Amino acid sequence: MTPKSFTVDLTKIKGGGEFPCPRCNKLISPEDETEETYTILDTIMDDEDHLERMVIQCNTCESVINLEGFEALAEEEATGIEVSDALPDSKTGYRTLHTLTQEGRSLGQIAVEYAQKEDVQAFKRIRKLRLGEPFKATVTLVAAEDASVKREDLSPITKEIKKRFKGLVNQDIYLMEEKGGRKTVIGKASDL
Ligand SMILES: [Zn+2]
Questions:
Q1: Which of 5, 18, 98, 109 could cross-link 29 (Cys pair, CB 3.0–4.6 Å)?
Q2: Distances in Å between the alpha carbon of 177 and those of 13, 152, 185?
Q3: What predicted TM-score, i.e. pTM, was given to this entire model?
Q4: 3-state SS class at 103
């Protein structure tokens, strides 16, 4: 077999990061440091000295494999932000409610609305909405008595929401702050 070159995005791999060689299907585990199944050819770091890319070679078929997605993986682990499954009060395909937590600590909740026939019609000229697609999210962040929600905390939250509800863009995400039972508008994610 002549060597070939492939790219593998680690963020698309489930579980422990193992993946079959795109060519010969031999299972490669980046965590296997013995390098029995592969050889590291190169590691590429970003400006901040984080691992950006790794080039390895399959020991079985000699294919060269570019491993990508290290930064996205690290980021995901670092924020610890999680969106819950739909809460019992939800109406699938219409409006779903979710809690937002960070490392188990409650941040607030999210209401997601999905495009109905009339929404698809109303948006027709400005945006191509598909029936049942999420098109609005209202995020209510509960602030502690003595502190406000920090702006720099919002970006990882909106990122997580967009990842979870495919189709949502920053303009669809409305952020609110709840403090002592009173709600105030923070703004749209696109205005931050
Ligand atoms: Zn191979």
A1: 18
A2: 35, 14, 6
A3: 0.63
A4: coil
Write the pLDDT tens digit of every residue in 61-104: 999 999 998 877 777 667 788 899 999 999 999 999 999 999 88
Judged on CB neighbours under 10 Å (0-12, 13-18, 19+), 60 is middle
How far is ligand 1, taken at its centre, from the CA of residue 145, in Å?
Answer: 57
Q: Would you say the C-alpha torsion 119, 121, 122, 126 has a positive or negative sign?
A: positive
Nearest CA to 98 among 86, 89, 114? 86
- CA of 76 from ligand 1 middle (Å) equals 29
**pLDDT of the residue at 120:** 94
Cα of 71 vs centre of ligand 1, distance in Å, is 25
**Which residue type is seen at 164?**
R
Phi, psi angles (nearest 5°) of residue 80 = 65, 20
Question: What one-letter code names the amino acid at 69?
Answer: G
What does each C-alpha distance from 132 to 94, 95, 125, 151 come to in angstroms? 7, 10, 18, 31
Burial 114-151 (b: 16+ CB within 10 A, else e): bbbeebbeeeeeeeebeeebbbbbbbbbbbeeeeebee
CA of 168 to the centre of ligand 1 (A): 38
Question: Does residue 134 carry a pLDDT above 90?
Answer: yes
